Each structure stands twice: as structure tokens, then as C-alpha cells.
């Protein structure tokens, strides 16, 4: 998707935790409508990269921009920026004391300034989109892990984000529930959502990614189409990684 505008750009991004150099001169462009799957061994920096993009972590040097604007430092501007990016984590992080509907309407009402009616209507649409139209009144504990994660995706969509960041969204799920979550993500990608996805689901990566980015000890060592990456990885480290996960 080289002609679509760049939505997220990382330029020479470096991040340390103490003496641990976790991101090394990371350059990455995510184009509007593109799905990028970020692969790499455990500890290679995938989560840190995602967390730097929505500024849950600060970077030590380099630059990250969203639609050309640098990420704001703090305060209200940062809250507005976060609203433009939806994040879905491994653990579902739903509010357990709130119904599914209220999980979806909380941020739009409190942060987005929507009316309760408007937010509830939108929540209904989003629940239908993730196949859970009948669960608006349920509480998270009454749902399976796969259903909870689909609610988390609907909640991330409720603020109409420009991009969704996924950090191993299916890693905590029982195997039989992985497919239903990946199907929702694939449908979003097909609808043109911009997505940055960390996953170990190689079938998904191959089927859905526009580009695969491989992170090795904090450095991007390969960026390729999925077919190229999976059929002919360029580096020994990528080959080694694939031999373990495929
Ligand atoms: P991945 O998601 O690819 O498994 P992470 O981004 O979680 O990798 O971690 C990259 C490196 O940074 C690891 O060495 C990890 O121990 C370290 N790290 C991650 N988060 C923190 C933190 N909050 N404090 C200190 N070290 C961290
Ligand atoms: Mg991680």
C-alpha cells in the first residue's frame, strides 16, 4: 500500500530500560488502511514498540508521529491522541463491574462527549460487528475469553480510532477461541482499518498482513510481504524464529 498516506511514522526510535537497549534505531511507517504484523522472539521489543506508539512509554531518542504530528507529551493533548488509537492487549482489561454496554459507552461519554443514547446505539452496532449483539447486558465474567476479547475490540472501536494496536490479543485464550477473535480482526483489516498487530498466529500473519516486520533484539531486520517473509526469510534469526513457531 505504498500510495496511501503514512499514518504512523517511527524515525530512529531508541528506547532503553536502564542499560537494556530495547529499541534500536527503529524506522517504521504504517500507511492508512494497512495491516502490519510485528513478529519477533519473546523479549525482542514488540510490546515496547506498541507502548511507545501510544505513549504508554516514552522514547529516549528519535521521533514518532501520527498523521504527521509528533506525539504530545502529556495532559489533554495526550488523552486526545490516545483516543485516536485503540489498543487491545493480551489480557482483556474489561471493567468487570460494568455491563458490556457500559464498557463500550464509558469512554465515548466521558472523554468523547457523546450523549448516553448516542453511545449506546453505537455500542449496539459495534457489538453486532463482533458477533455479540445479544450480550450488551451481560457482565464480563459471564462471557468466554473469546467473547471478552471481542468486547475489548468493540470497546477499542468505540472511540472511532484511526488505528488499532493489538498486542498478542489471542495469547491468553483457549485454543478453540482463538479463531473467533482472529476472524473479527481479519474482517476489520478487510474493511480498511489500519492495524499494527503483534501475534504469534502465523496463519493470520500470512493471510491478513500487508507487510510483516521482524524485530530482532530491538532492531527491525526484515520488512517484507508475508509470502516473501514466510517462504524466504532473509536472516538466520528470522529462519530460526520461524522454525520454532511454524
Ligand atoms: P516482547 O513483547 O517482544 O516480548 P518486550 O517489549 O516486552 O518484548 O520487552 C523487551 C525488553 O524490554 C525485554 O528485555 C524486557 O525484559 C524489557 N522490558 C519490557 N518492559 C520493561 C519495563 N517496564 N521495565 C524494564 N524492562 C522492561
Ligand atoms: Mg510482548
UniProtKB/TrEMBL annotation:
Catalysed reactions, semicolon-separated: a polar amino acid(out) + ATP + H2O = a polar amino acid(in) + ADP + phosphate + H(+)
Annotated PANTHER family: AMINO ACID IMPORT ATP-BINDING PROTEIN, GLUTAMATE_ASPARTATE IMPORT ATP-BINDING PROTEIN GLTL
Q: Where is the ABC transporter domain?
A: 8-242
Q: What is this protein called?
A: ABC-type polar-amino-acid transporter
SUPFAM superfamilies reported for this sequence: P-loop containing nucleoside triphosphate hydrolases (SSF52540)
**EC numbers, comma separated:** 7.4.2.1
Q: Which GO terms describe its cellular component?
A: plasma membrane
Pfam families for the chain: ABC_tran
**Topology term for the membrane:** Peripheral membrane protein
Q: Where in the cell is it found?
A: Cell membrane
What Gene Ontology terms describe what this protein does at the molecular function level? ATP binding; ATP hydrolysis activity; ATPase-coupled polar amino acid-transporter activity
- Name where it mostly resides: membrane
